[in-house]
Design brief:
The structure holds 3 protein chains of 3 kinds. Chain A is an all-alpha fold. Chain A has helices at 8-17, 41-78, 94-103, 115-132, 150-158, 160-171, 175-198, 200-206, 211-217, 222-225, 227-240, 252-255, 265-290, 302-323, 329-358, 370-395, 402-406. The longest helix of chain B has 33 residues, at 2-34. Chain B folds into 2 domains: 1-61, no CATH class; 64-130. Chain B is built from 5 helices and no strands. By secondary structure, chain C is mainly alpha-helical. Chain C contains 8 helices and no strands. In chain C, helix 1 (6-30) packs antiparallel against helix 2, helix 2 (34-54) runs antiparallel to helix 3 and helix 5 packs antiparallel against helix 7. The longest helix of chain C is centred in the N-terminal third of the chain and has 25 residues, at 6-30. The interface between B and C is large, with 56 and 62 residues.
Chain lengths: 429, 130, 211
């Protein structure tokens, strides 16, 4: 288990502060010994933790600003518009201006709202997303903590946002908010199960829940070794970020902004921040678990590899969001419970058999070599194609019954090529 | 073992800052109201619940469908199931050597038992959105 | 207080987590609004998870957050929203003496159990596998260089065991090993219990009405 001193940022700050801690700072800091005597080592520890923690969270806030700008620009390009282009070069300051504006907007609390619940909900929405970044390894030796329950920690903590949605929905005491909040909770809950099971394949191969160890195990990125796990995890991550094609909770034409309707000013800003930070968090998790995290080839530093891959994942997620139509609620729920759930179990089974086959020749707890991972990948791709085809057969929409088309009431069936001919009222015939 | 507590000590500090940051932003916004930078001109109309421009129909909506409760029940059961998969998966590679196919078989039985009510739920259309 | 000493910082963490758990629990029973009570219940669960972390049972702590905060408290919140009078429904039953007696009995029995239990540390757990696993030195019986048969603690592991007295290194893997090795039957029975729960959940669902 990596300790806090394997974290190179932490070690440098800590060892520069403490005067003589030869047990922990054998190699010393950048500038040699610090000024704090050894019995104040806990102060050095706390200061170092605060500094790194603050750096990570502020970097996150900065990247959310950049992400929102990029999101709007790319969205505009997809629709052949120009997007925000007034403030700063390429409109880069638009989001900064938006953030400042949001802060100084009037804060309106509905008269009927449960003020306590209403005010806590935005904070509770943001905290789980922030917590994800505590365990993500951004580069070799660049992490905040490497828990030995890392991936499970992420899944547990993000499930806290479900509670925040319930609170926001109930707190605003608004029928639209409650309706959309319940939809959103049903969606979050449905997609959390396949999401949690889909990473178990990676856990089995790596033999650990620690994210650092999972990155180490990826001599071949897990996206190649277990395509099914990646597919399910990516779909679930997209769904949990609550945007098209899964945005049934804030379908704009039906529900306005859903449970955000009654929020204004910085409280709305918190939800907005949480939504986009969750997108970045999802990309970071996908990069770590399935795209071999910070690993790459030599001349480029590991951190650049990590953020490069993360950017690519974010772009892919944007692409899906901007080009897919919104799914109906029944399609969304059916996909989670009937499609993704089976796919994860198939992934679990095939990976389990493969691990059982290859673990024999290994020393206990050893990682798999690249060759073994390639063989696993080959088998898993066959399973991938077959199972996707089979699930597609099972979930294929049933043809509409003729009785529905002949019904006297005008129906607008989806998936039928031609509308039944209806005489326009008063048409000469 | 001290490393264990140091790891989680770091985590506690992270939690503190992660909670403090949004609260700090919200209170900064509130401070702006104190210094009259942020307007505060509330009115009866503004404070009414937003229902797409219509006046609110009832003072407190109690729109709650029992179906959501059933989804939550399903969720709890499968969540507990997932929790048992994790410790098994961590030591799975080691256990297959020691116990052979028992390691895989035990989990297959565990999942197989749960498949029966799952298929029953499918047949009963409990997995579908009304 | 020295943060590097286990005693100082963990004691502080213990009191903080207990304060959160108990304080939130008191709010659950005193607050009038039922929905607020359910939210305080979630905070109480978080406090209990903190206690697990202090006990260095990090897996159980995480599971507490995943299942109780993420799932059960949402279930409770949903159930509460079905109540007709949400804002004032958490009324007292008006029999303080009965409540006090029951609470005192439950508290007394818990304290009795806590005193009567012989608390095991890692050095007096009987099961060698559990000890080895808890110390993070679990080695398979087929490992090269070790006599076959029972899985044992390696020589290097014995030192580590001494260094880590009383603390569990990696509980997740040990739980998994013990589930398959010693508690296989219990594990399958859990599957049955979950099945029963699922069928129960389905039974209260109404049949979909045909058009």
């Amino acid at each position: 288990m990596p300790t806090f001193l394997d974290n190179s940022w932490f070690r440098n700050i800590y060892c520069n502060l403490v005067e003589n801690d030869s047990a922990r700072c054998a190699s010393g800091g950048w500038f040699g010994d610090g000024i704090l005597p050894n019995n104040l080592a806990w102060l050095a520890y706390t200061v170092a933790a605060f500094v790194i923690c603050f750096a990570i969270l502020n970097a996150l806030l900065g990247s959310v600003i950049v992400y929102i700008w990029a999101w709007r620009r790319v969205f505009a390009r997809f629709q052949r518009r120009s997007g925000p282009n007034r403030w700063g070069p390429f409109g880069m300051l638009t989001t900064v201006a938006d953030a400042i504006k949001t802060m100084f907007k009037e804060d309106v609390v509905p008269a009927e709202a449960d003020r306590l619940i209403f005010n806590i909900a935005p904070v509770l929405m943001v905290v789980p997303v922030f917590m994800v970044f505590a365990v993500i390894p951004f580069g070799a030796g660049t992490f905040f903590v490497d828990l030995n329950v890392g991936i499970l920690f992420i899944i547990a903590v993000t499930s806290g946002s479900v509670l925040a949605v319930v609170m926001a929905a109930y707190g605003s005491a608004n029928r639209v908010a409650i309706f959309s909040g319940m939809r959103s909770v049903a969606l979050l809950m449905s997609y959390e199960i396949p999401m949690a099971i889909s990473v178990i394949g990676a856990v089995m191969v790596a033999g650990s829940l620690s994210l650092g160890r999972i990155v180490e195990a990826q001599d071949v990125p897990f996206i190649i070794v277990m395509p099914l796990g990646f597919l399910v995890f990516a779909i679930c991550a997209l769904a949990e970020s609550n945007q098209t094609p899964f945005d049934i909770a804030e379908a704009e034409s039906e529900l306005g902004s859903g449970y955000l309707n009654d929020y204004s000013s910085m409280k709305f800003g918190m939800f907005y921040l949480a939504e986009f930070a969750a997108g970045i968090a999802a990309a970071a998790i996908i990069t770590t678990v399935f795209l071999s995290g910070w690993r790459g080839w030599w001349p480029i530093p590991s951190q650049f590899w990590f953020f490069g891959k993360m950017g690519a994942v974010l772009f892919g997620m944007m692409w899906i969001r901007f080009t897919w139509p919104r799914l109906r609620p029944d399609q969304v729920m059916g996909l989670a419970w009937k499609g993704l759930f089976e796919l994860t179990l198939i992934n679990l089974l095939s990976t389990g058999i493969m691990v059982a086959v290859f673990a024999d020749e290994e020393a206990p707890g050893d990682l798999f070599s690249a060759n073994e991972l390639w063989i696993m990948a080959a088998v898993n791709w066959v399973v991938f194609v077959v199972s996707i085809w089979a699930i597609g057969k099972v979930l294929a929409p049933k043809p509409y019954r003729a009785a529905m088309l002949e019904a006297p009431v005008q129906l607008y069936p989806v998936g039928v090529d031609e509308m039944p001919a209806v005489k326009a009222a008063g048409a000469a015939d | 073992m001290q490393d264990y507590f140091r790891q989680y000590g770091l985590l506690v500090i992270f939690v503190a800052i992660a909670i403090g940051m949004p609260i700090g932003m919200l209170s900064l916004s509130l401070l702006a109201q104190r210094f009259k930078v942020r307007p505060s001109r509330s009115s009866e109309v503004k404070r009414a619940a937003y229902e797409s421009g219509m006046p609110p129909m009832s003072p407190k909506p109690t729109l709650f469908n029992i179906r959501y409760y059933q989804y939550a029940l399903l969720f709890v059961v499968f969540d507990v199931e997932t929790v048992f998969l994790y410790p098994w998966a961590v030591k799975y590679g080691v256990m297959t050597q020691q116990f052979g196919l028992v390691a895989l078989g035990a989990m297959l039985v565990f999942l197989g038992v749960l498949t029966v009510p799952y298929l029953y739920a499918w047949r009963k259309r409990a997995l579908e959105w009304q | 207080m020295n943060l590097f000493e286990v005693s100082g910082s963990t004691t502080a963490a213990f009191w903080a987590a207990s304060a959160l758990a108990i304080g939130a629990a008191v709010m659950v029973v005193t607050v009038k609004n039922v929905f607020r009570a359910s939210i305080f219940l979630a905070f109480s669960f978080i406090g209990v998870a903190g206690l697990y972390f202090v006990l260095s049972a990090e897996f159980i702590g995480i599971v507490q957050i995943l299942v109780y905060v993420g799932a059960v408290s949402v279930l409770v919140a949903f159930a509460v929203m079905l109540v007709r009078d949400v804002s004032g429904g958490n009324r007292s039953i008006g029999k303080p003496v009965v409540a006090l007696v029951i609470a005192a009995l439950v508290g007394a029995s818990l304290i009795f159990v806590a005193y009567e239990t012989s608390w095991q540390r890692i050095d007096d757990i009987a099961n060698a596998d559990a000890v080895a696993g808890l110390a993070g030195t679990y080695v398979g019986s087929d490992a090269p260089g070790l006599p076959s048969g029972e899985s044992i603690v390696s020589a290097a592991g014995a030192d580590a065991l001494g260094a880590q007295r009383g603390v569990f290194a990696d509980t997740t893997g040990v739980i998994g090993t013990l589930l398959i090795k010693d508690f296989l039957l219990a594990f399958e029975i859990i599957g049955m219990v979950l099945t029963a729960a699922l069928i129960g959940a389905l039974a209260i669902m109404r049949e979909r009405r045909t058009t």
